[in-house]
């Protein structure tokens, strides 16, 4: 068998690979959109420390898109206001995205009528939000040629929208709601609920009187104390689950015991 000959020697291949990666990193940094570097985009509002990663998805109707501060819009995210570009949509914003929102890679937010996303919402990749749905009233006319229906969409603050979820026109999602991956949401979802399925239904909910029903199967995570040091965190990472649970149950005494694990006691 004849030996395969490489076009490049190994060091040339490595050099070319590094150059490609460095070049692409430069393109991503340069092509990203922010308030300081908006490029060709003229959003109605684009908050401080917000960044739209490059490459972007389809973006049009920017004057009617308002994005808050400290948002992360991942690669290939589509943001549109209006049915098509170059329409006059009036004086008010159509798509409102609050502060601290994260939109995962490949997500779509289609705002032909108003769509509102509250503060601190986190979207997984490939989430689809739309305020428009096709009509099929006339059985003799192709569905794509029938005039669509429009209903506003509202997603409350603090929500987590899982990978591949679909939010349909007319959805009203409350505060701190979990939408499971692949769920299809329409209608009203109450605050502090978990919804799953297609169509989505409430599978768990929190109320002040009853707490979580059905009860959570896993214990709530223990928050990291404000005064904990990096050395203590490194020591904590070396413990097993039983030891961590025992320290957490001891409160202040547990923090003192954790400090003793550090070689220098700092």
Automatic annotation (TrEMBL):
Keywords: Acyltransferase, Repeat, Transferase. InterPro entries: Hexapep, Hexapep_transf_CS, Hexapeptide_acetyltransf, Trimer_LpxA-like_sf. Residues 209-229 are annotated as: Disordered. PROSITE patterns: HEXAPEP_TRANSFERASES. One of its GO terms (molecular function) is acyltransferase activity. Belongs to the transferase hexapeptide repeat family. This is Acyltransferase. It comes from Streptomyces griseosporeus.
């Amino acid at each position: 068998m004849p030996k395969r000959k490489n076009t490049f020697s190994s060091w040339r291949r490595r050099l070319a690979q590094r150059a490609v990666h460095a070049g692409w990193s430069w393109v991503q940094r340069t092509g990203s959109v922010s308030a300081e570097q908006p490029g060709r985009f003229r959003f109605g509002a684009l908050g401080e420390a917000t960044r739209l990663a490059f490459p972007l998805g389809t973006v049009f109707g920017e004057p009617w898109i308002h994005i808050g501060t400290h948002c992360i819009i991942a690669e290939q995210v589509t943001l549109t206001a209006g049915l098509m570009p170059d329409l006059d949509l009036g004086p008010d914003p159509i798509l409102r995205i609050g502060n601290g929102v994260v939109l995962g890679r490949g997500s779509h937010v289609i705002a032909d009528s108003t769509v509102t996303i509250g503060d601190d919402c986190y979207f997984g990749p490939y989430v689809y939000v739309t305020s428009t749905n096709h009509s099929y009233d006339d059985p003799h006319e192709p569905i794509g040629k029938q005039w669509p229906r429009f209903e506003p969409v509202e997603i409350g603050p603090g929500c987590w929208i899982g990978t591949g979820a679909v939010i349909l026109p007319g959805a009203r999602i409350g505060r701190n709601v979990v939408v499971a991956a692949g769920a299809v949401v329409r209608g009203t979802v109450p605050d502090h609920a978990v919804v799953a399925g297609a169509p989505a239904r409430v599978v768990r909910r929190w109320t002040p009187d009853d707490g979580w029903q059905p009860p959570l199967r896993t214990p709530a995570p223990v928050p990291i104390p404000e005064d904990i040091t990096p050395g203590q965190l490194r020591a904590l990472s070396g413990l097993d689950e039983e030891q961590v649970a025992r320290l957490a149950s001891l409160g202040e005494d547990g923090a003192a015991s954790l400090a003793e694990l550090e070689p220098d006691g700092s």
